[in-house]
## 1
Amino acid sequence: MDMGSDEGGAGPTPEPLPGRPYLPPPDIFVFPPRGPLPVSRGAPERRLARVNRYDRRARLVAYEKLTTTGTIRLSFEVVDGLPFEFLPGYFVGIEADLADGGQCKSPYCIVSPPEAAPSFQLLVRLVPEGPLSCYLAALSVGDVIRFRGPSGKSMIPKEIGTELVLVATGVGVGPFVSLSRHLLSGGFDRPVRLYWGLRQAEDLCLLDDLDDLAASHENFSYRISLSQPPPTWTGLRGRVTETVPPLLETLAGKHFYLVGNGAMIEEMRLALSDIGVDDQLIHRETFFNVKHRADPRVVGEIRSRFVANDLFSPFRHQEAGLFIPKRKASRQKP
Ligand SMILES: Cc1cc2nc3c(=O)[nH]c(=O)nc-3n(C[C@H](O)[C@H](O)[C@H](O)COP(=O)(O)OP(=O)(O)OC[C@H]3O[C@@H](n4cnc5c(N)ncnc54)[C@H](O)[C@@H]3O)c2cc1C
């Protein structure tokens, strides 16, 4: 075939430019890529195609009212046939429809150990006028919930050989039950000490579970601290930020876990940091009061209650005047 002819509509063969090699006209057509074209982030196509992430299903199989003050334990079985795997510290996000046509969603930490999957348990505090906690409290056995997950931060310690100091307020104890059961049944042999802060004696629950853990594993112990104890109460008296610091004789080699109220978590964390605990060794999970800004006076009071002084604390050194501040180099020539 004479590529140089007019036949075929290829047009006349162009003369090569002086000094340049001849390049034939392109005979390869570039087609658009197969499949849907990429669309920009805000494009309506994307919004239409957005999948509901709360697309998993679980059925309530047991409902236990644990206290008269509004704590319930719910047991679910996953019914969507998809894998359900998690680590202690993970949560499920639950979504529900409201009576006004809206929706609400909130995360809840799993209380049962991973070995119980695909069944799981939640410990829920009923918050008056809280849409999702009220929805969960009103469930009946056999009801099916919509959820996503499980997801979250694993609580399994990364360092081998550390002791665990678990500090919870209210339902924040839930993931600690999961963690303790999982680690201890797997042969974890370092001390696990749980400190649980509650308001009043009526809030007490899960004692059988905790007693069972303590009876089966001598390295597990727990103490409960009531901030409004009755006169007959023989446990710890006060908030965990008051009662726990004097009980810790040493801080080195320990991994701290703080779960529950954001105020306790932030103030305890700062106090621990000030007395030398590495931030990497303080695991936090805030259930509410997320934006709490620590009060320096409260942090100072918590710090002063710690008796342990086995870690290097820049704060204490500075307080004791052991730091000689560097003199600013004068720019002026003598
Ligand atoms: C990672 C994560 C895990 C969580 N796990 C659990 C869990 O295992 N069990 C559980 O009960 N809750 C848990 N929560 C809290 C839960 O997600 C909801 O915020 C809570 O149930 C209230 O939701 P609501 O829709 O009923 O009310 P909302 O309208 O969301 O909250 C109403 C008010 O109640 C406050 N509040 C929320 N929780 C509490 C509480 N426990 N005590 C006192 N006040 C509270 C909120 O700060 C808010 O001011 C978790 C939160 C997070 C972020």
## 2
Amino acid sequence: MDQILNTTDYCDLPSRGELYAETNPFYKKDRIPFHDMTAREEDIMANKTLLKNGVAFDRVLQSVSETPNADINDLTISDKQALLMRVRINSYGPEYKISLKCPECGLRQNLVVNLQESLDNALKFVKPIDETLVFYKDCELARISHDVFSFVTRHNKHKIVFRVGHGADEHTMFRMEEKKNRERSKGVVPKEDIDRGAVLDTFKMFIISINGIEEKGKLAQMIEGLHTRDTYHIREVFREVSCQFKMMTTFTCLNEENCGYEHEVEVPLNANFFRPDFE
Ligand SMILES: [Zn+2]
């Protein structure tokens, strides 16, 4: 044998392939093939420049993907996230060590997250697109194309047309995040403003029009003026239509002073996510 063959496994796609154009290799694929990480992919993760530019994860996913002629960035953000989780679990096991600060008492503590459990739990709540369309019938949710949808907000009855985010959008968001981090480190923008900015950035990126208005400047103004009830509604519909899921884990504070804090928290992705921890 002159070649080591890695067995192929499959990753279930949260979108079930329902958010792709017919020309997209992921069209109507409810699961996609990939192989476990090898020395080749480990080498990618060891490349500091790739890590710094946020493209290391992409290169790894592209390298393990076994869908012919497919660009990993054609996946929706949620499908790509699911693949990332599956590759991590297959390659290094489901256990992921993180360190979190208790939101109540501030004590930093280590915990081990079971990524498989978190992923299974999260995906249970993702509905197929057809069901989502029925669920949001009251706000006239309609499909315009494979990844463009429209609906009417409950509070001010704005007609929103939006698209689902893809891998390429993540790069734009990553660059925006980097810029904010630089500003944050310089102390020019207060933290609250940065967090608020994240919602606006997402809206500006994915909302195509409001009440038929597409012109960028006008649209941006409208977005900024949206009522909070409507922004809440928009985020909910975005989340459901995009088949978004959140990796959560239970955090129980170990503070001996009996802090007692116990809550579901989102699993943070850090630099150790793609690092073996075999010992
Ligand atoms: Zn605590």
